[in-house]
């Protein structure tokens, strides 16, 4: 525990130092179709976990005018999820951007409730943009690059070559290579690397040596990190298949030794740089949590070792984000906190139910599956309300829909509306309705996910209580 505190203190010290270098960025514009809405801008805290970090909120007035400021210390990719679009922009410290937004188009009800719906990416326009602006450079390059990208990749898998990768790269460099901008230079270079990798022009090992071995790590450049994430996807499983890497499973699952894992990975000469090796290990840990090849407890032990020994601020952040991402829904851990409004206008959180078990579920009043189970939830509530609190989080578009539903049905347990914290859907990784969780009196998850009432939840709940001697 002391080492984790020391690492956190080091991290906070580094953050405090970087905060002193923050520069303001101003974003403004006029978008009448967004009137009276709030446009929130985010960035990814890191490009391995893609943990969202809110940077600013722009309130749009009744005439469509908006302006907000955010602070950054380096060139950043920022974005805003607005209706069916994911709007993005590259912002540089100290600059002002007068932006142009597409007409607002809300999600349909089906799109809103579909956890697999993906917004359409749109590069935000800028009024009177300078041709040397980073957004102009990247947008122009991407347009030219993508024009042939799909065809080259398809040809590669078909074993033909209708467009030469080298000739395309040469052509693009003649057009863009003279436009000097450090971020753009890196962006172009790693886009070419992505093309070489996906077109099968070079083997992965060759790409790794050319683009990553003993070179600076560009944590905040999307092109760099996209190629990195592709090359080192599920790296532990890949390297373990080689003779020189066959100790990986033992290092992690049996020995739970970060030191031994590093010694094994050192057999890959591409990872001679300790910082790159550490980043690859973090990527490998992140990926391994989402398959069943390694013990999660063993992975957490290795992750904690990285956290407590690294001296790289970015790696501390990534380790913290991985831990938060993988433990937030693990049994034995406390889920993401929330405060949501009930139909009587009161803010409620899990702490309001401390001392009782909570059967938490996510539903909509228009879902047939949810409606079928509400009558079973009412019976559970009547039988076990002294010990078990039932809490339904409604994702209906408007809280008035929920209010009308409760008025008509008379259900008595706690209903909350997600409206003031829509990110709760991501926090609990909701992919279908209904989804259930059982949370203990100490606010830690017991069953994640939990069975539905029709899947014998009551029996499993009793078995759990019996196992801990409560009945």
**What would the principal axes of the Cα set say about the shape?**
globular
Work out the number of β strands.
16
As a whole number of angstroms, the C-alpha radius of gyration is: 25 Å
Spatial strand order of the main sheet: 11-10-14-13-12-15-16
Strand portion: 15-25%
Roughly how much helix do the residues carry, as a percent range? 40-55%
Any idea how many domains?
Answer: 4
Helix segment tally: 17
How would you sum up this structure in a few lines?
This protein has 471 residues and is an alpha/beta fold.
Description of the structure:
By secondary structure, the protein is of the alpha/beta class. The protein has 17 helices and 16 strands. It has four domains: 2-128, Immunoglobulin-like (Sandwich), CATH 2.60.40; 136-231, no CATH class; 235-327; 340-467, 3-Layer(aba) Sandwich (Glutaredoxin), CATH 3.40.30. A seven-stranded mixed sheet has the order 11-10-14-13-12-15-16, with helices on one face. Strand 15 (435-439) and strand 16 form a beta hairpin. Helix 3 (134-158) runs antiparallel to helix 4 (165-176) and helix 5 (182-198) runs parallel beside helix 7 (222-231). It is globular and about 75 Å long. The chain starts with a helix and ends with a helix. The model has no long low-confidence stretch (mean pLDDT 92).
Helices, strands, pairings?
Blueprint: H1 2-19, E1 23-30, E2 38-44, E3 52-59, E4 65-72, E5 76-82, E6 85-91, E7 96-100, H2 109-113, E8 120-123, E9 125-126, H3 134-158, H4 165-176, H5 182-198, H6 204-211, H7 222-231, H8 235-240, H9 248-254, H10 258-265, H11 274-288, H12 296-309, H13 313-327, E10 340-342, E11 347-348, E12 357-363, H14 368-384, E13 388-394, H15 399-409, E14 414-417, H16 424-427, E15 435-439, E16 445-450, H17 457-467
Parallel strand pairs: 1-7, 6-8, 12-13, 13-14
Antiparallel strand pairs: 1-4, 2-3, 5-6, 7-9, 10-11, 10-14, 12-15, 15-16
Helix pairs in contact: 1-12, 3-4, 3-5, 5-7, 11-12, 11-13, 12-13
């Amino acid at each position: 525990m002391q080492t984790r505190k020391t690492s956190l203190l080091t991290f906070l010290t580094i953050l405090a130092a970087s905060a002193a270098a923050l520069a303001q960025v101003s974003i403004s514009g006029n978008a009448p179709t967004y009137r009276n809405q709030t446009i929130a801008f985010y960035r990814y805290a890191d490009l391995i976990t893609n943990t969202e970090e809110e940077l600013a909120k722009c309130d749009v007035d009744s005439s469509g005018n908006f302006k907000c400021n955010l602070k950054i210390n380096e060139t950043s990719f920022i974005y805003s999820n607005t209706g069916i679009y994911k709007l993005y922009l590259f912002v540089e410290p100290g600059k002002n951007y007068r932006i142009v937004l597409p007409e607002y188009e809300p999600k349909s009800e089906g799109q809103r409730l579909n956890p697999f719906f993906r917004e359409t990416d749109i590069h935000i326009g800028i009024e009177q943009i300078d041709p040397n602006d980073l957004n102009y450079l990247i947008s122009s390059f991407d347009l030219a690059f993508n024009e042939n990208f799909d065809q080259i990749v398809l040809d590669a898998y078909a074993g033909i070559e209708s467009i030469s990768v080298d000739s395309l790269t040469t052509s693009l460099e003649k057009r863009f290579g003279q436009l000097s901008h450090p971020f753009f230079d890196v962006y172009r270079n790693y886009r070419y690397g992505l093309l070489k990798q996906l077109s099968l022009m070079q083997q992965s090992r060759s790409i790794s040596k050319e683009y990553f071995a003993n070179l600076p790590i560009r944590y905040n450049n999307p092109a760099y990190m996209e190629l990195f994430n592709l090359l080192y996807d599920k790296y532990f499983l890949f390297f373990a298949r080689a003779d020189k890497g066959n100790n990986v499973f033992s290092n992690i699952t049996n020995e739970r030794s970060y030191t031994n894992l590093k010694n094994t990975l050192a057999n890959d000469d591409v990872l001679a740089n300790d910082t790159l090796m550490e980043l690859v290990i973090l990527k490998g840990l992140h990926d391994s949590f989402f398959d069943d090849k390694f013990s999660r407890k063993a992975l957490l032990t290795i992750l904690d070792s990285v956290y407590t020994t690294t001296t790289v601020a970015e790696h501390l952040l990534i380790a913290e984000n991985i831990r938060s991402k993988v433990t937030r829904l693990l049994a034995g851990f406390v889920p993401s906190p929330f405060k949501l409004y009930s139909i009587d206008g009161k803010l409620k959180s899990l702490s309001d139910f401390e001392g009782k078990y909570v059967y938490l579920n996510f539903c909509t009043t228009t879902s047939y599956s949810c409606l079928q189970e509400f009558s079973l939830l009412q019976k559970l509530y009547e039988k076990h309300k002294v010990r078990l609190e039932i809490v339904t989080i409604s994702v209906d578009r408007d809280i008035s829909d929920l209010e009308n539903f409760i008025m008509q049905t008379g259900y008595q347990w706690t209903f909350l509306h997600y409206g003031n914290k829509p990110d709760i859907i991501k926090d609990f990784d909701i992919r279908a309705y209904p989804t259930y969780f059982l949370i203990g009196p100490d606010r830690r998850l017991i069953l994640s996910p939990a069975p539905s009432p029709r899947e014998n939840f009551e029996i499993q709940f009793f078995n759990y209580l019996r196992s801990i001697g409560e009945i």
